[in-house]
Design goal:
Blueprint: H1 5-11, H2 17-33, E1 38-40, E2 43-45, H3 63-77, E3 86-89, H4 94-102, E4 106-108, E5 129-131, H5 134-144, H6 152-162, E6 164-166, E7 180-184, H7 191-204, E8 213-216, H8 225-235, E9 245-246, H9 256-259, E10 267-271, H10 273-282, E11 292-299, H11 301-310, E12 321-326, H12 328-337, H13 339-345, E13 348-350, E14 357-359, E15 362-364, H14 366-369, E16 377-380, H15 383-389, E17 395-398, H16 402-411
Helix pairs in contact: 2-6, 5-8, 7-8, 7-10
Amino acid sequence: MRLTPDEEKVLSGGYGEAKRRAMEILVKMGDYSGAERMVPVSWADLSTFSGIGGGHGDSPDNDLYKFMQEFDDLCDQENVKFGCPTVLADIGDPERNARLTKMGATLISPAGASSPHDIFPLPLFGQYVTPGATNINTYCNSMIGARGNNEGPIGVRMAAITGKTPEYGYLLDENRVAKVQVDAQVAPKNYIEWAVMGFYISKRLSTHYWDVPVITGVDPVTTISDDIMSFCASMNNPGSITHFLIEGLSPEGRTLEQALGGKKPQERFSVGPKEMQEIYDTYPAKGNPPEIVTLRFPLTVQRLYQVVGLFEGKKVHKDVSFSVDLTWGAKLVAERTGMRKSLEDAGVLVAERQGQVMWRGKMIDPWVDAKREGVRTMVTDSLKDCNAISQQEIDMVLLPSLEKIVEVAITGKLEA
């Protein structure tokens, strides 16, 4: 890689050992990826698996945990500050929060752990970014036009420390144009249907997720940001799609010709009712009683009002554990208007951390605890939950609307 004189100084230890190690890792990443140079990072997001309280099932026995603990100790000793604006999700670990805010990170809400809803300030078009959370990275690339790769917790942290990242992948012009055309032959009615469409596309492209898809047939007038954020959540799981374009909505896809770079697509397929049903059929109700029901995708203010309205005069069934996640804005509204109390009086757990559920009197994280704690059936609005938790041999059920999910929580019935 060609390094600037200042980058060479960092690499030679001129700014301390912590920054030297960070630059060394970034140079190795760049060499491996064929990058020719470093570029300046405008914004970094540490709201992801940090190796220290930042991910599902973190353990002191984990190598990543040990590495990050030692690196954080070194940064603390050298009083290192982040080299670019950096945000951090509060995951309830005061020591981690204190360390990283001392280094200059801005603390944001728990819901921001993997969702763009609560990220502030958002980056701008054309800026180089290193988002830790995959949902956020996909949104920044696809709907803002900022440029970022999925670097993993170490790559993100080292970029935040130095304010630099190697220029490869989606940071390069040639890798941002679409190669696959996806024709939407269905108009998603809500955020869950958007997630289903994204999941199908992601699964279809999972063997070559680096081939950017452009989605046609989407109504740019009626689509809202909540829909797109849900779409992003499933586009990068299971297929790790980090960048897509929507004709007429994405800043780099105002027209189909622009999205494809003036070329014909290398592949073309459609998503219609049949393909959507294929995803629902992957996570069907099997007639077992629901045990855990959750609205995992963080409730916006709009959906908060919907849920409160659906629970008016009703309560969660005695045999069901029902929880919701709130965006930061929805949490403030819920507390100021009394809606949080209304939900809690109805038996709803308003989670303080993303993904929390109550099970047999204690908080658990289903991503790692479901099988061990004896959970058998879980109903959700999240395809990420379905994809991850079903690997524990748990019956995961995806329902097509918020209304149907709340109905199951109230009635305790889940028909096959």
